[in-house]
Amino acid sequence: MMLPFLQLTAGLYFAGTLLSLVYLLRRSHVVAKIALGVTCVGFAVHSIVLASQVFSVEGLKWVTFQTALSFFSWSLVCVFLLVVLRQSLYVLGSFILPLAFLSSASAVIVPSETSALQPVVQAVWVHVTLSMLGTVGFAVAFVAGLMYLIQDRLLKSKQFNVLSFKLPPLDVLDTLNQRSIVLGFPLLTLGILTGAVSARLTFGEYVSWNSEQIWALVTWVFYLVVLMGRITVGWRAKKAAYLTIVGFTGVLLTFLGVMLKGTTPSISS
User: Are residues 139 and 267 in the same domain?
Assistant: First the structure.
């Protein structure tokens, strides 16, 4: 029943994405403001869809791959809107909105009737929320790292074009990268812990050492090393940017593995 509204949301995010990418090539802020308006409409529709999914079903049956993807997309757009409200950083939409669109489009494609998560995840919905929020933090760090590397290359090559003037200074991007990891890492940690408690209550053991749990642990250790390297060792921003891009790729592979395994018939048997 909510599928048409999810499709509308994905369509609005797609329009916002296209307009944001056009903004990269134009000096006028008019396109950015139009993109922001379209994205706000999509966010409003998306918020209504998520609220309806949460309150219109019994118990925790709303916790599915579809809603997890949808919530990830919604959270990304929420972060973008908050940053724009505080810093008027419209260019961030050119990098975040494509991720939000891909996630919302994936939520449309994934069949809701076959996308129920494993009982270990459904037993504690907090696990899903915290894990998704942690992933959002890493996604923002990924975007900040990507913008940093682009700006760094433009400055070193002395290519002072439209994009170089729209991208924030390197120190601003470095701060955004670090703060995103600082916020995302504790959320992922809590997500892993609640998932372990859920597994103990459901299956009688905290860890079953399946491929998803192993990848999640590898991701957690990776970001721990990055975080400690930045805080204690003082790794340079460029190195941190490369590492967060690699780390987020691992996060996506982990989540993709959970999705693919969760949609196979063997999981529900």
Answer: yes
